[in-house]
Model the fold of this input.
Amino acid sequence: MKNIKTITSKLLITLIVLHLFSCKKKKEEDPVVVNTITTGAPTVTTTASTNDVTINITNMADNVILQIAKDTIYKPSTPKYISAYGDTFSVTKFRYYISNIKLKKQDGSYYTETESYHLIDASDSLNTCKFNLKNVPYATYTAIEYMIGVDSTRNCSGAQTGQLDPLKDMYWNWNQGYIFLKFEAYTSSISSFGGHNVEYHVGGFKGATNNIKNVSLTLPSNLVVDNDHISKLFIKANAKECLKTPTTISFATLPTAISPASSKPIANNYTDMFLVTTVIH
Done:
């Protein structure tokens, strides 16, 4: 009887040890969860499926890179351009907002950037003319769409911080709205009292004076977003388009446009100033 009890005790201990070892091994073999999404249904395990896309904007004067003049009078070294009307001029300021950026997929759906407001300043190309779109889903994209300006909702509400900070000198306090584009220049075609003598400040988002412009650009080749690298889009913005098509601007006739109504011809002109030149992926 004693031997039977001893054998039974040893067998019980062996079974307990085997059970504990089995539980420990199962726990060690459980997979590592990268991300879990719980929606009331069974838990789903996912892995990263987004990457960044870099946007590079080069501001141009037709076929040459735009140079911002610091001189208030013409000097031999001052960069000069000729408008479609025939006026010789130098650009002293060229700044604009692009916002509400979307990338269009092959299937017609979109990636939409959140809090999408970017102030582009041709005088500060290193810091303002290159930025990243964050968390773009893996896919093949065929087009990019965006606004020139700031949407009507954000003109009237929301935080005025970051790119939309009024201290960036792109806000009309008197008109309670953002300036979508500033084009300032010096020309010998009209009288000057020092500094720039051409001043176009484009804004307005209400009714007949709504100058928000939408841009849709088909990419020259598909943009592929995957986990291997950060893809890049290169865009050119031609500042001289502000002065032509559909309206050829004469500085003598329109030296200043600083209200939504008077700046409408400038807004209508610059709608087609953008071109995607290169896609790298």
About this structure: Residues 2-46 form one domain. Confidence is low (pLDDT under 50) at residues 1-8, 23-39. Residues 2-29 form the longest helix (28 residues).
